[in-house]
Amino acid sequence: MNPLDPVRLRRALADHLEEGGVLKTPAWRKAVETVPRELFLPMFFKHETGPDGLTHYTPVSRDTDPGQWLALVYQNDTWVTQIDGHLTAEAADRPVTGFPTSSSTMPSTVVGMLESLDVDDNMNVLEIGTGTGYSTGLMCHRLGEDSVTTVEVDPAVAQRADAALEVAGYSTWTITGDGLLGHPRRAPYDRTIATCAVRRIPYAWIRQTKPGGIILATVGPSAWTYGTGLAKLTVNEDSTASGRIIGRTSFMPARAEAVVPLSGDLTARAAYPDTERKTGLSPNVLNDWMPAFLAQLAAPGAQLVRTISDSRETVYLFDTGREAFAALTADGDEWTVRQGGPVTIWDAIESTLTAWHDAGEPDISTVRMEVTPEAHAYRIGEEPALRWKHRHQPLSD
C-alpha cells in the first residue's frame, strides 16, 4: 500500500483527531475523511528559525517534492500561505522572512471549532475568514454548499479559495469583503464562525445571527500572538449576546485590526518617562496565557517587545495609538518600570493581575462575556472584582 495515498492520509488524520478528543461526531469525521486538504494547499511555506534568530519560511510545492508536500499537508500543523499581505509560496524561490498574513490553520483547531459550533443539518452558516477554503469545504460537506457563506477580505486569497472549492465540488457562496461587517444579504444565520481573531465581537454579527444562534470567534486585542480566547456566544431575543470563553486558541488577526510590528530604536521611543518606580510584578508572568489575556484587556493597544542588550533584558509595552509606553528593566530579581504618555500601561496591567491573583488565579474558561449595542463586557465568573466594558477599560463595582 502507498503510505502517501491521500485517502489513507485523510483517514489517519481523522484517527489522530479522534484519539486526541477533538473529533467527536460521525458527521464531522466523514467530512475530514472526504475533503481533500491537498486541493487547498498546492503550495505553502514551512517555517524554521534561522541562524539570525528570525523565522524563515521555505516554499513547499507538490511540483518540486510531491512526497514531502503531501506528507506535510496531512500533518496536524498550520501552514503559512501568504507573507506580508502579498507574497505567496509560488512567487518565492528561496526561504524568506516576513510577517504571516494568511494560513491554513492546523486541523485540530479547525475541527475543534466546528465541533463546538453545535450545527444541525441544513443550518445557514456564516464564516468570517475563508483563508485557503479548507474549513469552508468541511462545512459544505457537512451542511451542503448552499448553506455556507464565507467572507474573505483579500481578493487574491478569496479567488484561490473559491477555485479550490469548485475543484473539490463545492459551489458555495464565497464573498470578497470585510468580514467584520458580516454579509447581510444572506442573513439571518443560524451560526457565525470566525477563523480570524477580533478585538471585539462586531455587533453586525449579532444583528445577522438568529435569536438562539451561536457566534464562535477568537477574541482579544490583536497586538500579541497569544493570550486570546475562543468565545462562544448565544444571541438573545433582545439582540444582545452572552456566553463565555470556552478555551485558549490562536488565529491571525482580522486584516483590518492587524498591527504593524514595531521597528527602529525602541530605546529612543521610551527615552522620556513621566514616572519611574519599582514593581513587584515581573513581566515574565505575561508569558502565561491567562495573564497575557487579562493584560491585553487592561492595555488593549499595547504591543510587547523584549530586548537584551549587554546581558540586560528590557520589556517594552508600546501603545502607539495613544503615544504611551512602559519599559521594564531587570536588576537582579527586581524590576524597574518607567512609564510615559497619557495612560499608565503597566499600572493598569499590574492592578488587573493583582485582582486576578486575589481571586485565586482562575483559568480563562471562567471568563464570561456580554455584548449589547452599546457595550462589550467581560467578567470572571460571578466575581465583581474584574470587569471590562466596551473599550476594555476596567470598571470598579
Instruction: Give me the CATH fold name of the largest domain.
Output: Rossmann fold
Number of strands: 20
Question: CATH H-level name of the largest domain... which superfamily?
Answer: Vaccinia Virus protein VP39
- Low-confidence segments: 390-397
Helix count from the secondary structure assignment: 11
How many separate structural domains?
3
**What is the topology, as strand order, of the major beta sheet?**
7-6-5-8-9-10-11-17-18-19-20
CATH architecture of the largest domain: 3-Layer(aba) Sandwich
Radius of gyration, in Å, reads 22 Å
- What's the CATH C level of the largest domain? Alpha Beta
The major beta sheet can be summarized as: 11 strands, mixed
C-alpha geometry: globular
Mean pLDDT: 90
**Class by alpha and beta content:** alpha+beta
- Distance between the first and last residues' Cα: 66 Å
| Content of β-strand | 25-35%
Give the fraction of residues assigned to helices: 25-40%
Short description:
With 397 residues, this protein is an alpha+beta fold.
Which terms summarize this structure?
single chain; about 400 residues; alpha+beta; Rossmann fold; Double Stranded RNA Binding Domain; 3 domains; eleven-stranded mixed beta sheet; 11 helices; 20 strands; globular; disordered C terminus
